[in-house]
Design goal:
- With about 525 residues, the chain is of the alpha+beta class.
- It contains 19 helices and 8 strands.
C-alpha cells in the first residue's frame, strides 16, 4: 500500500508517477495534446522565473555600479521583447523537433531502435535549444552592456550564464517528466538501449548535484569578487547580497534535489507497487518502462520476471491438469516422490456399455459424452480432497490420501462414491457407470525412467477397487465398497453404509466383505 492509495489504483491511474501524465492506453491524439500543454507550461514557467531571478540579481542584488539608474527606455523594451521572441522561437523549434522525433506515435506503430534512442535523447535535445537561446541572451546583453555600461559587463555576463545552467537543468528534469508516456511507448517491446546506460543514473546524479551545489557557490564567489572590485561596498550591502544569494541557492538546491529525487523514485515506486500485487497473487501485472537509465532496465527486468512467473504458473496449471495439483505440489516441494507405503482409499469408476456407445454413436458425440462424464468425476473427486490419478479410456482411477494426506481418506472416497452415483443418475442419465471403493496400504510413488516418469499408486486396494467396479455394474445402485473402507472411515460416513455379502473377486484369493449404501 502507498500513502496515495492502493497499488492497483496507482498502477491504473498513475502508471507514470503522476496523474498529470494520464493513463497508459491514452490515444495518440490525447497524448500529443497533453504533451504539448505540459511542455509549453513547463518551458514558459521555468524560463520566466529564471529570467526574473537573473534580472533581479544582476540589477538589484550583486555589488557594483547601479544598473537601476542607468536603465534606459530602450532596455526596458528590449529585455521583455527578447524574452517573448526567444520563447516563441523556442516553442516552435521544440514542437517541430518533438513531432519529428515522435512521428512513429502518429503512425501507430512500434518505435525502431533508432527511434527509441532519439526519443530517450529528446529531453536533452530540447534542453539544448533553451541553452542556445540563453547563451544568445548572454552574448547579446553582455555586448549591449559593454557598449552602454562597460563596468557592469562582467556582472551581467556571469549572472546570465549562472541562470542559464540552473534554469536549463530544471527545465531538463521537467521535460523528462512530461515525456515519460512517450518513452514508455518507445520502450514497450525492449529495455533501454545500452548506449544510453553509459551516462545513466550515476552521471545524472553527479551533474544535478553540481548544478544544485556548485553553481550557487560559484554565485557567492562571484559576489565576493565583485565586492573586491567595488571597494566601497558597505557591510550592510554585502550582507544583503549574501542573504539574497543564499535564498536563491537554497531554493535552487531544494528544487533540483526534489525533481531529481522524483525522477528516481517514480520508476522504483512503480516496481514496488507491482511487487505488492504479485505478493498478493496477482500475476497479471505489467508496468510501463519510461526511464532511459538503469532504472528503466529495472522496470524492464521486472516485466520479464512477471512474464516468467506467468509462464511458470501456466505450466504448473497445465501440469496439474495432467497429474493433479497434489502431485504437482509434492513434485515441487520434494526432490523425488519416491515409493512410500501409505494408507489410502481408492475409487475406480467405469462406464457400462462403452463398446456399444462407440458403435452406436458418432465419435464426436462419444467424446462429448466422455468429457461430460469425466467432468463430473473430477469435480466430485476434487471436492472431496482426492485426485484423479489415471484416465483409462472410459474409466478413471481416483486416490484419496496420497500424495497429499487427508484426515479421513476412506470417508472422503466413500462420500465421493455416493455423490458420484447420485450426480450421474441426475446429470448424465444416458450413461451408467460402476463404482468401486476400497481402502488399504498402497505404495505411492513414481514409476518409469529419470527422463520420463509418472506418479501412481500400486497395491492390492487398486486391483480390488477395479474388481468392485465390475461387480457394481450389475448391482442396483451401481456402487459397491469394501467393508475394510467402511471400517476405516468416520462414524458419520459409516452410518450411510450397510454390510452385504462376502465374495471373492477375480484375481484375489482372500474374500471381500461388500458394503452398499443404506
Amino acid at each position: 500500500m502507498t500513502s496515495h492509495g492502493s497499488p492497483e489504483l496507482v498502477l491504473r491511474r498513475r502508471p507514470f508517477g503522476s496523474w498529470l501524465l494520464g493513463p497508459v492506453d491514452q490515444s495518440p491524439r490525447r497524448l500529443r495534446a497533453r504533451l504539448q500543454v505540459l511542455m509549453t507550461t513547463f518551458s514558459i514557467g521555468t524560463n520566466l522565473i529564471g529570467a526574473v531571478v537573473v534580472f533581479v540579481l544582476a540589477v538589484f542584488v550583486l555589488p557594483g555600479p547601479s544598473l537601476v539608474d542607468r536603465l534606459q527606455l530602450v532596455d526596458a523594451i528590449i529585455i521583455p521583447l527578447y524574452f517573448v521572441f526567444a520563447m516563441a522561437i523556442g516553442c516552435v523549434w521544440s514542437i517541430r523537433l518533438t513531432r519529428r522525433v515522435t512521428r512513429w506515435i502518429d503512425l501507430d506503430r512500434p518505435a525502431t531502435r533508432r527511434e527509441q534512442i532519439a526519443t530517450l535523447q529528446l529531453p536533452l535535445r530540447l534542453t539544448l535549444i533553451e541553452v542556445v537561446l540563453w547563451l544568445v541572451a548572454a552574448v547579446f546583453f553582455t555586448v549591449m552592456t559593454v557598449v552602454l555600461q562597460p563596468e557592469n559587463a562582467l556582472r551581467v555576463a556571469l549572472t546570465v550564464i549562472d541562470g542559464t545552467i540552473i534554469t536549463c537543468a530544471v527545465s531538463y528534469l521537467l521535460t523528462e517528466f512530461a515525456l515519460r508516456p512517450v518513452a514508455a511507448r518507445a520502450l514497450v517491446d525492449s529495455p533501454p538501449p545500452r548506449r544510453l546506460l553509459a551516462a545513466g543514473l550515476k552521471a545524472r546524479t553527479i551533474f544535478f548535484w553540481a548544478v544544485g551545489s556548485a553553481v550557487p557557490v560559484a554565485g557567492l564567489m562571484l559576489a565576493a569578487v565583485l565586492s573586491l572590485i567595488e571597494r566601497d561596498v558597505t557591510a550592510t550591502r554585502l550582507s544583503i547580497v549574501i542573504l539574497a544569494l543564499g535564498i536563491v541557492a537554497l531554493g535552487n538546491g531544494a528544487l533540483l534535489t526534489w525533481l531529481s529525487a522524483k525522477s528516481v523514485v517514480a520508476p522504483v515506486r512503480s516496481v514496488r507497487d507491482a511487487l505488492t500485487l504479485i505478493g498478493e497473487g496477482r500475476l497479471d501485472v505489467s508496468i510501463p518502462v519510461f526511464d532511459g537509465t538503469e532504472l528503466g532496465s529495472l522496470q524492464a527486468g521486472f516485466n520479464r520476471m512477471t512474464e516468467g512467473l506467468r509462464e511458470r504458473e501456466r505450466i504448473r496449471d497445465v501440469f496439474g491438469r495432467y497429474v493433479g495439483p497434489g502431485v504437482v505440489q509434492e513434485a515441487l516441494t520434494r526432490e523425488r516422490l519416491g515409493g512410500e507405503e501409505r494408507f489410502a482409499a481408492v475409487l475406480f469408476i467405469d462406464l457400462v456399455g462403452s463398446t456399444e456407445l462407440a458403435t452406436q454413436r458418432p465419435p464426436t458425440e462419444v467424446v462429448q459424452l466422455l468429457n461430460r462424464f469425466f467432468a463430473i468425476v473430477v469435480d466430485e473427486v476434487d471436492r472431496q480432497g482426492g485426485f484423479v490419478n489415471k484416465f483409462a479410456g472410459d474409466a478413471a482411477l481416483a486416490v484419496f490420501g496420497a500424495p497429499a494426506e487427508l484426515p479421513d481418506p476412506a470417508g472422503s472416497a466413500l462420500s465421493a462414491g455416493r455423490e458420484l452415483a447420485r450426480r450421474l443418475s441426475e446429470e448424465l442419465p444416458e450413461a451408467t457407470a460402476g463404482i468401486g471403493v476400497t481402502a488399504g496400504i498402497v505404495v505411492a510413488g513414481t514409476v518409469g525412467d529419470v527422463r520420463r516418469h509418472e506418479y501412481t499408486v500400486i497395491g492390492d486396494p487398486v486391483n480390488e477397487a477395479a474388481r468392485l467396479s465390475e461387480l457394481a455394474k450389475t448391482s442396483p445402485g451401481r456402487l459397491i465398497a469394501s467393508m475394510a473402507a467402511v471400517d476405516e472411515c468416520e462414524p458419520a460416513e459409516a452410518d450411510q453404509w450397510r454390510t452385504s455379502e462376502l465374495v471373492t473377486v477375480r484375481g484375489r484369493s482372500v474374500p471381500t466383505r461388500l458394503a452398499v449404501p443404506q
